[in-house]
Specification:
With about 160 residues, the protein is of the alpha/beta class. The chain is built from 4 helices and 5 strands. Helix content is about 35%, strand content about 20%.
Length: about 160
């Protein structure tokens, strides 16, 4: 657990696969956001993974972050979005295995098992091309920049 009196970091979890073109936008946006926050003097802990895993709840317990940002690319959004996350009903976790966790499900594990009380948001960037390869489409690249700006404004007002 974080030491009493220690500065609590912002936990940023970038989700995606950089070898599937726009799916990597979550990683790139998370890295850009972490760099901008660190340059502004905010403590950050950055985690980059292809998918969410239950073990990430342990990381949150140890860090006791002041805020949590999940950053991911999505074909379901046309522009970058920032959505507050709430803890879903615990029963909704029963139908899912440990390899298809969503940000709200992982947040539920963090809160219920480890008393992580930080507010959380999902930052989604647009994804258009999920084929094999590296590099981002123009829409995904613009989403990376917009994600950092949105999240920085949110955290500046917190």
């Amino acid at each position: 657990m974080a030491e009493h009196g220690a500065v609590r970091p912002i936990l940023i979890i970038g989700i995606g696969n950089t070898l599937r073109r726009d799916d990597g936008a979550g990683w790139f946006a998370a890295e850009a956001l972490a760099a901008a926050l660190e340059a502004a003097g905010r403590p950050v802990h950055l985690i980059l993974h292809q998918q969410l895993t239950p073990e990430m709840a342990l990381d949150a317990m140890e860090l006791q972050p002041v805020a949590i940002l999940f950053v991911d690319a999505s074909v379901a959004v046309a522009e970058t979005t920032l959505t507050p996350l709430w803890t879903p009903a615990f029963e909704s976790l029963a139908d899912h295995g440990d390899h298809d966790l969503t940000p709200p499900m992982l947040l539920t594990l963090m809160r219920r098992l480890y008393a992580v009380d930080a507010p959380a948001w999902l930052v989604q960037t647009p994804a258009r091309d999920l084929s094999h390869g590296e590099g981002l489409s123009e829409a995904a690249q613009q989403g990376v920049w917009a994600a950092s700006a949105l999240a920085l404004r949110l955290l500046a007002s917190a």
